[in-house]
């Protein structure tokens, strides 16, 4: 019953607010506010004080009651203000393996007003994370996302909450931005990797590993500073990385169709296992899926391409 | 964020509440509280052992037992406060979650309410406001310390963030963060915002006259006159400088020798102590009022006694819950535990032609048969020489005047035959001795007489234009029933110490008793300061503490309502509430409103909108030059015009300032944007 009601509510709110696009400014019409449990307790305390004050015609108690009532109402506005006008600038996801967790990076901006403390972000059924937004500043919140199955996982909605200050009220909003988390298949399986060479006849050579010059490529986040071509950088060229490798020497082809003995999902998991292991070992590898072929290479981008293909295989 | 800080604040808010009530608590209660607070704080700092549930329950049981032992009840304000303090301290011991800390702060607010119910002095009110402020600040700190939803535990960065349902917060708190100072300032500002509403509600929230229920206030000390008088009992009062009541007259003041404030009337005498008669079957005698009426308002301080004082003799009861007894005394059904004020009319001189009833005569002529034989003998001797009761009164007064009697606030002790001892041996007495002896002599000669206790005189406060009557003004005198005149006031003290009637008690007191008072009197500056302070207190009690429904209606009348009632109150109240809410919404929301972009930005915005309609939408990451390139790529036909405009814009925005011509150039740019004609692609 409760879940049903919540589902109805979520649908209604989605319909009411419409889809969101980032950057998103939190405006009045999308902010909701209700007292917290502490707020309800505070209200009951005030009610008791009011009744006692009226009963005993106790002016000082009545005045304090009214003062605290006014305080409660001011707090309500302050809590509302703590989200009002804040901006969700960007949301980016980092892919995950199935049955693992992905990351959702949220960047908030506080364009006007004083610092906004204790802004909490959360996904449905998960613990919230908090951030303090400095005045005219930005702050990030990193959320973890449970990824049960491979594929493109839609992050349906995101909740932003604050109870600051005083914790008597809770202001929240729902964000329905088009957020997607790519979930790779779980790397799993114990079959041995196919040997070097491969189905298309690229021959393995015996020349040893890592001294062959492959060329220069633009710097990518995570590259070792030792590989950077500092001389080129000194000549005011962009940051470049020298790539060495064993091109054409040790190359593996991972083929979906070669794993006939396994079920479809198990094949994808096995392929993912191989991709991850090969990438870790720094080998060159290519992937063949029915109707799709990724030429051998290596590096984070290639790995992501392969795993991404596995993630959405058969789903799109 | 340091969790100790929020525990310390919660404990502080609670301790503040305890301090406000500390004078009504048995000494061991605050000691236990202090112990628990220290224990909890030490435990928070260095993870000391805290008691488990079983031990806490045991301690709670023992402490409740202690309260029951002390008060013999758990019902009542004092016992309830003690209980609340103890339970709150035990709750403090188990505060782990945010919820527990909220409850401890709420206990601090509860204790504030208890303190208000107990006393509403002007002097204490700032303390009450301070406590409200502390509690609100504590709420802010507690709320900030634990941002998570109740029941979830904040993950620290040392934990692996890649666990399901978790994550990490990367934020360093904003420079300085939401610290103690910020919490205190925010709470203070919020309370200040609430002040207009509080004032409005205070004045216009309809007060319901009458109580729905009452907490028994047992175990509280009574002050002032009691319903018995024995030699020395009034003397004890005279060393107290406490205010009994204040009286403000409209119209002329009674002359000094008529300022008798009537209190308990005592009828029953056992030879040593005078008591109030428990039964009062007698009808009040109709009085004929002589002279002029005095109209006044009495503001009575709480005494936990049932007497309401009036200028002798009042014409009736000011309140339905107050009896006007057959001996012209005002007696409330309930003890006076709160400051109370009432309006009265009195005549200082009365007469009655009605015959005294037989029962009443018997009651007021009774003397203990076996006591004070010598004085009875004296009475019969004097009465035999007198021609009438009135002449006998004069004879006794003469006897007291000429018999070598002296007036003293420190008379020697008397035996069980107190009247004989006083009249024939010590001959030194205070007002009570004289009244007691006089009435005894009257009764022994079969003249109906009774002792009246009350106050005499009072200190005039020129600032507030009222009399302050203090406990030190306590007095007792006699009333005799004379044929054709009815009950007649006779003050035997007056013949021994006539200055008591004129100048008040202060000059008669020995130095030691009233040294502080004497010091005050010796300095006109200090005197005037104290009078101002007292006038302020009186104003506070009269206008704020006793503000009621009638006062509300009076204010409405002054605002121009013809026949004001609760409905008008509600209207004003609602209108004020709405006005205040709008003000607060504006006041609080104002800080987050974005500043309107300047003219240049607005013009550039307009240009971007025009180009978007033409099919080139500026992406959020595109600066002006990149956007110009994009336009050139997509709409070569517009390239040159748009590039000129955009170059113009970047020069105005980012180029070196040209203070004198900047505004003109911005205007030109805006005009150019307005003139730009684009047809959709």
Summarize this structure as a short list of keywords or feature phrases:
heterodimer, A: 316 residues, alpha+beta, Immunoglobulin-like, 2 domains, five-stranded antiparallel β-sheet, four-stranded antiparallel β-sheet, 6 helices, 17 strands, 32% strand, elongated, B: 681 residues, 23 helices, 13% strand
List the helices and strands and how they pair.
The complex is a heterodimer of chains A (316) and B (681).
Chain A: H1 2-17, E1 24-25, E2 32-35, H2 37-55, H3 59-83, E3 87-94, E4 96-97, E5 100-109, E6 116-122, E7 129-133, E8 138-147, E9 151-155, E10 158-162, E11 169-175, E12 179-184, E13 212-218, H4 230-234, E14 240-245, E15 251-255, H5 264-281, E16 284-289, E17 292-297, H6 300-312
Chain B: H1 3-20, H2 28-46, H3 53-71, H4 77-93, H5 98-118, H6 125-145, E1 167-168, H7 180-204, E2 228-229, H8 233-238, E3 243-250, E4 260-266, E5 268-269, E6 274-275, E7 288-290, E8 294-300, E9 307-308, E10 310-311, E11 322-324, E12 330-332, E13 340-346, E14 349-351, H9 358-363, H10 373-385, H11 389-402, E15 406-407, H12 418-426, E16 428-429, H13 431-444, E17 449-456, E18 459-461, E19 466-470, E20 474-482, E21 486-490, H14 493-496, H15 498-503, H16 515-522, H17 524-545, H18 549-558, H19 566-589, H20 599-613, H21 624-634, H22 639-654, H23 662-675
Parallel strand pairs in B: 15-16
Antiparallel strand pairs in B: 2-6, 3-8, 3-19, 4-10, 4-17, 5-6, 7-14, 8-13, 9-12, 11-12, 17-20, 18-19, 20-21
Helix pairs in contact in B: 1-2, 1-4, 1-5, 1-6, 2-4, 3-4, 4-5, 5-6, 6-7, 7-19, 10-11, 10-13, 11-13, 12-13, 20-23, 21-22, 22-23
